DNA sequence: GTTGCCGGGTC
DNA sequence: GACCCGGCAAC
């Protein structure tokens, strides 16, 4: 099967270190060619979408300052809280290093996953 | 209980 | 910076 175009150096390193060329092991994973993140028909032209930041903190420990006294009624009934929060993807579609390789093969994880950060390998 | 990530800590 | 974990929300 074709490898992702953005083959990460980590994986290549493993290939060279783990098993010699011309011999591929059974593979830690068995991903169907249809559900690969890189096989998406939509080419990601944008190198990086700065959709980070802007994370509403649910833990309003410091409390939010009310600008006016009881004037903002509309904000009370409809806070900026969408059901399908775009800030975090649904896990049903995202197979990250941990789920793909498993805790037993943590060495195969991408660095970010090992650090419990946002996955850079499978992360779109 | 598991998973993915932020925030924060240590070196 | 690189590295790691606590803790949280979403399942």
Quaternary state, please? single chain
Q: Average the pLDDT over all residues and give the rounded result.
A: 52
Count of discrete alpha- or pi-helical segments spanning 4 or more residues: 4
H/E series, N to C? HHHH
Outline the low-pLDDT stretches. 1-7, 9-87
Q: Estimate percent helicity.
A: 10-25%
Distance between the termini: 20 Å
What structural class should be given to the helix and strand makeup? mainly alpha
Global shape: elongated
What profile does the largest beta sheet have? Answer: none
Number of strands: 0
Q: What value does the Rg take, in angstroms?
A: 21 Å
List keywords for this structure.
124 residues; mainly alpha; 4 helices; 19% helix; 0% strand; elongated; DNA-binding
Provide a compact summary of the structure:
The chain is mainly α. It is built from 4 helices and no strands. The structure holds a DNA duplex (11 and 11 nucleotides).
């Amino acid at each position: 099967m074709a490898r992702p175009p953005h083959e990460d150096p980590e994986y290549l390193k493993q290939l060279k270190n783990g098993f010699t060329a011309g011999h591929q092991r059974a593979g830690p994973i068995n991903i169907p060619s249809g559900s690969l993140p890189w096989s998406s028909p939509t080419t990601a032209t944008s190198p990086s979408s700065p959709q980070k930041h802007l994370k509403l903190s649910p833990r309003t420990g410091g409390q939010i300052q009310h600008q006016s006294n009881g004037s903002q009624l509309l904000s009370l009934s409809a806070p900026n809280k969408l059901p399908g929060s775009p800030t975090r993807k649904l896990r049903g579609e995202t197979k990250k290093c941990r789920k793909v390789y498993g805790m037993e093969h943590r060495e195969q994880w991408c660095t970010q996953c090992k650090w419990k950060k946002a996955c850079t390998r499978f992360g779109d």
